[in-house]
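Technical annex B. To support the medicinal chemistry partners, we prepared a structural model of the target in complex with 3-methyl-2-oxobutanoic acid, based solely on the information shown next.
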Amino acid sequence: MNKRTANSIKTKKSKVVMLTCYDYAFAHILDEAGVDILLVGDSMANVVLGLEETRKISIKEMLNHTKAVALGSKEAMVVGDMPYAAYQKNPKKCVYYAKKFIEAGADGVKIEWFKECKYVVKRLIKNKIPVMGHIGLTPQTAHLLGGFKVQGKTKKSALNLIKQAKILEDLGVFSLVLECIPHQLASHITKQLKIPTIGIGAGSGCRGQVLVLYDFLGLYKRIRPKFVRVYKDLSIQTSDAVRQFSNEINNGKFPNISESFSMDATQWRHLRKEL
Ligand code: KIV
């Protein structure tokens, strides 16, 4: 398999597999396991930094972690999630900050729908920056959507999402995240578009799926949305390992001799004479 690019994702015939990723070690594992896209998601604000809102994460934090993920991956496409401060706060600065993500090693950026989304996406694409769109439940502006609620449940709101999806495709995004929308609507949007849709809480009719890594591995316990499937609960494995570590320290079983360094016997004898 070769390095995934915006173009190879756009034309991929099989399903797109995306996971969020925030560091070098996991990037290496996910890349080797064949994940198509590593999204350095601003969900890092919640699951890594313990913040309540994704809007609170800084550009610097996102760039540092994008660098780490890019260093750990060879074949996956790395997408940097543009934080609120990098484009919604001042849309005129979007190209400046998107270029910082590319310099940090991202192969593209993700933009959530907001009132000036068209302006931002147009400018990024004009500057040859691959853009992934994101509609439905957009966490950076969840306060304007009535909170963390499923979107597109009424005719009016569903038509609005269909319109947003078409606008983004026409502007040239290479893929589109559909977050928390009814599965019927997600399938309809998917059929209307040529670019792949990547669903999270949007049913199986999308052309790809994404989950937040820390949800997928059972590491984040504060909220467990209905659409999350925990594939392996590393929180249980981690706490078992920690209990065993603690017992083995207490009963002298850790470390053993092969996990320790030793001194040459002659040197030790000479030293003992001085002690
Ligand atoms: O930040 C994130 O994790 C995301 C995904 C939910 C798509 O935007």
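Notes passed to the chemistry partners:
Residues 20, 39, 41-43, 81, 177, 179, 200, 210, 212 surround 3-methyl-2-oxobutanoic acid (CB under 6 Å).
Residues 155-171 form the longest helix (17 residues).
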